[in-house]
Structures are given as structure tokens and as C-alpha cells.
């Protein structure tokens, strides 16, 4: 059968990893602007890479340094977006997923009116995208909430942030109602317990009970997501609003029933956020988890009504790797993954950063999500970070990247042939950018090479990799030509 006509092929980027221009045209600092590059920390030590304290935040605010705060410079998409979007147009993109930096529109998050220069920037970006017939897919919150809200309110722990987020989103809906049809509310919303500061602006040393605060932040984000979904439908007729999940597919380490149970428990927690946003209610097992752990989450009957009445139109997700679980972690060799450390599957190869490469896992994930939710799906992040070499003649021979995508596309198409309703696919990322977890440039994902190193040195020139021509042919053939 293959992919349907009108399938949305493209790529995905986010403001805090590409834009730069962190303190110009009225933009305020975001949580991403205090993320540091830590060259002396193992790139596989995820918790140390993203760790933050009140002290480290204050230290960051006292400097304009961009060398060790790489998300402040990104790849200068803020000034180079016409060049980059032209390259995406040459690739044949049908869609491009971007995010709108909240602190570029509301610098502290508390302003009554938006920063017009910020709105004007995104208006120009959307105009450029439409020039090449690229459909925008916009994430409203992608790890870049205003830093002021983290410092003053401990982020999403405070219910007042809901109204601030709603004001930001409503400004975007009104401003871009003629430009954007597809919206996502929170990127990888389930990640609050894995990196509370990055995802929800929670500063751990400000919390007396971090686990409770994390789930309270979850609840406030769920309510906010439902409210802005309602607003989007009312302000932009025909708009589609999706949730965005981290699909952390996990297998039992063995057929031992205790390993099966350990894997079941991990997968159940991973589904939690999707269940709330698709079904509009908390799963019974999660409510029991709250009770057993003494987590008294403040939620009103009105909150529950809002969740039930404003569910998402489609389910989008990231998929990079899979893990294995055991009742006894001593039985496992651990390795890094997307925002997690998990059991390494001995049957799978790994990337330069230790992430397992599991194309069949993408098919499994698509089947699992569609069987559970009965909603259209959208793969909005998938790709591999690798060490690329720029040759003297400015070429990048990345057959390993082509092999990775080819095998994942084959499995994705098999899932569609099995009955999955799939809207589109956006690779992470079509152009090299500053890595979310390690803040590195050397962890390269793109079909387009950016001449910049981990310390921000380089010409910033863009060069097409071998995979550029290959992906161009894949899109032109709607996935039929994978050779």
C-alpha cells in the first residue's frame, strides 16, 4: 500500500537549538540559555549534563558568554533562516516543525502584551516557508520557557503559569491564524520527571518534595494544554492540535516474568501523559501510584472537566532508540538514550553516543500507539547523532546516516501497511544544531552540515551531506525509492 498521498515529509528543529540571538530584539532569557556545555562530563551521563541549581542559574545570568552556553548562539538561524529554508525547500519538504520561543514573545512571561519584534520574526519565517510550499508544524513549548518563571514561580509547579502560557498561545493563534494549521502544545510532555528544569522550569533545590512538584507541574501542563487546544480550535477554524510524547519503547531483558513485569511498569509510566491527553482522564494505575507514594496533587473537578472536553486531534512522538528492563538492574549493561539511561539490548548496534539503533522498534511503537489511541499519528522526531567529517572538498560522506533512515523508513511503511494512520514524518534534525542534552555541535543529526564546533568556532557555512540527495529522492518518491 505505501504512504498516502499528501504524506507530510520534512524535518524538525527547535528555537533554542538553532536561533541564537538570545538577547536581541527584546528576547528574554529562557531555561535553555543557562544550559552549559560540559566538556569534562561523560556525554552519556545525562543527569550531570542537564543538572542545574539556583547557584548555577545566577552564575549564568552574570555572563554574556556563548562559548560554554552554546544554545545562546545556536546556528544563527535567526539571521540565516532564508538560506536554511531554501535548502529545506530544495529537499522537497512538505512540512517543517519549528517552535516559537516563548521568551521571544513574552520576555519574562508576565507581560500583558507581546513583543512585536518577536512576532514579526516568526511571521517572516512562516512567509519564507510558504514561499516553498512548506506547511508549518509549530510546537508552543519546546524546552524554552522564560527563565523568570522558573526563578520566581519554580516553573509549572505554580498554577499561575497556566494563564501566562495561555496568554502566550492566544497571541500566537491570533497572529499566525492564517499561517499555521498544525500545532503541538508541549514537546515530550512526559519528560518532566526526567529533566524537571528543562521541561517544566523546576529548580530542584527549591522543591521540598521534588516528586510531588513534578507531578503537580504535569497536571498544570495538562490543564494548560487542554485550554489552549480549545482556544486554538475556536480562533483558527480547521486547525489541528496534537500532543507530543517521548516514545521510550522498552522490552523485557528475558522471558522471566519478573523482567516482563519490570518492562510493563516502565511502559505504563511512559504512556501516562498520552493517556491523559487522548482520553481526557488520569489512568487508574497512575491515580493509585499517587496514593501509594503520598502524592496529593491539587486538581479540581473543573480541571478534570477541561481535560475531558478538550482532547487532542492527533498524537505525535519522538522515537530514537529502545531499552530493556530487568527486575534486577545488576543484570543489565546500561547505556544512554533520549533523556534516559536504560538497559542495553545486546542484539542491537549503538551510535557514537551509545543510543541503540532499533528500526523494528519504530514499527512496534507505531503499532502500539495506534492500537492504544485510535488517533492519527505523526513521527515528529527520529534520527541519529553521529560524528561527521568534512573533507577538504567540503563533502560529508554519511552512508551510516542513510542506512539508519532507510531501515527506519522501511519499518515505518510496514506499520502503515498494517493499518496505522500516519500523517507525516519529520526527521530530527534536517540541519546540524546544538544538541539538547550535551549542548554539543559535534553530535550531528542533519542532512545539512553546519561549519561550527563545540565551542562555537567556525564559518557557519552550510554544506550538503550525501544524505541530502538521498532524502530528497525519498521525499520525491513518497517513500518508494529508498535505494
TrEMBL record:
PROSITE patterns according to UniProt:
GLYCOSYL_HYDROL_F1_1, GLYCOSYL_HYDROL_F1_2
Give a GO cellular-component term. Answer: cytosol
Q: Name one GO biological process term.
A: carbohydrate catabolic process
Family annotation (InterPro entries): GH, GH_1_N_CS, Glyco_hydro_1, Glyco_hydro_1_AS
Give the highest taxon in the source lineage. Bacteria
The UniProt entry annotates the active site at 381 (nucleophile)
Q: Does the keyword Hydrolase apply?
A: yes
Q: Keywords of this protein's UniProt record, alphabetized?
A: Glycosidase, Hydrolase
Q: Name one Pfam family in it.
A: Glyco_hydro_1
Does the keyword Hydrolase feature in the UniProt annotation?
Answer: yes
Q: Name one GO molecular function term.
A: beta-glucosidase activity
Q: Name the family the entry cites.
A: Belongs to the glycosyl hydrolase 1 family.
What name does UniProt use for this protein? Glycosyl hydrolase family protein
Q: Which organism is it from?
A: Companilactobacillus suantsaicola
